[in-house]
Amino acid sequence: MTFIKGRQIMDAALMASECVDSRLKGAEAGVMCKLDIEKAYDHVNLRFLLNTLSQMGFGEKWLKWIDFCIKTVKFSVLVNGEPVVFFGSERGLRQGDPLSPFLFILAMEGFDSMMRIA
């Protein structure tokens, strides 16, 4: 869980406790996994994302477009209000990019599929 307006700080811990309790009382075997996805956008692997999208049926044109959108971004640092050097992104998805949340969700769908197979 993440911060959600109107929820208490202990809600996530209570929900996790309820999930564990429910799993222990159930007769069906299963696995529980808690992920800490801090800085999640920064750690999305582009090759994994593109492979996941390909497996989902995205065409070559879409894959090239998404690859282009992620790889061609340039950043700059302002010194005294002026940009000094432009540099490319080394990894992950950009914070604030309207496309990033959707791409992250699709990457997590690929991860979910891998976990279900494992």
Automatic annotation (TrEMBL):
Annotated transmembrane regions: none
Residues annotated as domain Reverse transcriptase: 1-118
Domain of life (superkingdom): Eukaryota
Positions in coiled-coil regions: none
Pfam families: RVT_1
PROSITE patterns: RT_POL
InterPro entries linked: DNA/RNA_pol_sf, Retrotransposon-Effector_Assoc, RT_dom
Protein name stated in the entry: Putative ovule protein
Organism phylogeny: Eukaryota, Viridiplantae, Streptophyta, Embryophyta, Tracheophyta
